[in-house]
């Protein structure tokens, strides 16, 4: 069974909350790292095939699998609209996307890129995700079964209440940008 698709309309006006005609779904965000993240895309394809909800994968440099809808990259407004429209957010362990999901009141499910699988150059995403998981800011998963359970739980639990602080800390966002730049071999911008 193929997953239903989430369409992200291009618009120049202020972002609005978009809902897929088939209902809210799941967004999987792999970020911009050049290392393939086949493991998460394969897990997403397996779960999308089991689901009546639409799945959307921002897949970066990783090849998109049959049965998944997605795009290589998203602009800032497109990402905001997507995060506003879905029930569940699954992301890699990059601080920027984690904080964007938190700002949209999601408790993101995080599958950190693991250097043992060739998904990154070192284990900083694993360490960062573990720390956020211990604080309760994310749900870290490392297997398909854990991902299946976390997605089901996120659907039941919903988003964080509006009165719970979720504003991203600019320091955290900046730190994430610096780490990403260093791993891409670029000099940090000031």
**H/E series:** EHEEHEHEHEHH
Strand adjacency order, main sheet: 3-2-1-4-5-6
Share in helix: 25-40%
Distance between the termini: 48 Å
Give the amount of beta strand, in percent.
Answer: 5-15%
Q: Would you tell me the overall average pLDDT?
A: 80
Structural class: alpha/beta
Largest sheet: 6 strands, parallel
Q: What's the number of helices?
A: 6
- Number of strand elements: 6
Tertiary shape: globular
Q: Would you identify the regions where 5 or more consecutive residues have pLDDT less than 50?
A: 6-23
Radius of gyration: 16 Å
Describe the structure concisely for a colleague.
The chain has 190 residues and is an alpha/beta fold.
How would you describe this structure to a colleague?
This protein is α/β, with parallel strands linked by helices. 38% of the residues lie in helices and 10% in strands. It has helices at 38-50, 76-85, 95-103, 124-135, 144-157, 170-184; strands at residues 26-29, 55-58, 69-71, 88-91, 109-110, 139-140. The chain has a six-stranded parallel sheet with strand order 3-2-1-4-5-6, sandwiched between helices. 39% of the residues are buried.
Protein traits:
190 residues, alpha/beta, 38% helix
């Amino acid at each position: 069974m193929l997953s239903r698709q989430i369409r992200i309309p291009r618009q120049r006006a202020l972002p609005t909350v978009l809902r897929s005609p088939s209902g809210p779904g799941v967004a999987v965000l792999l970020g911009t790292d050049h290392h393939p993240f086949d493991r998460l895309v394969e897990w997403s394809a397996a779960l999308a095939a089991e689901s009546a909800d639409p799945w959307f994968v921002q897949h970066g440099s990783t090849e998109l699998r049959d049965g998944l809808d997605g795009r290589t990259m998203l602009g800032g407004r497109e990402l905001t609209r997507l995060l506003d429209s879905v029930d569940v957010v699954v992301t890699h362990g990059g601080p920027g996307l984690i904080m964007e999901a938190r700002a949209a009141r999601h408790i993101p499910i995080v599958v950190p890129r693991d250097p043992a699988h060739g998904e990154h150059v070192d284990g900083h995403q694993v360490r960062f995700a573990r720390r956020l998981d211990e604080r309760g800011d994310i749900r870290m998963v490392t297997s398909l079964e854990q991902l299946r359970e976390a997605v089901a739980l996120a659907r039941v639990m919903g988003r964080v209440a509006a009165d719970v602080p979720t504003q991203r800390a600019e320091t955290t966002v900046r730190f994430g940008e610096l780490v990403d730049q260093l791993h891409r071999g670029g000099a940090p911008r000031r």
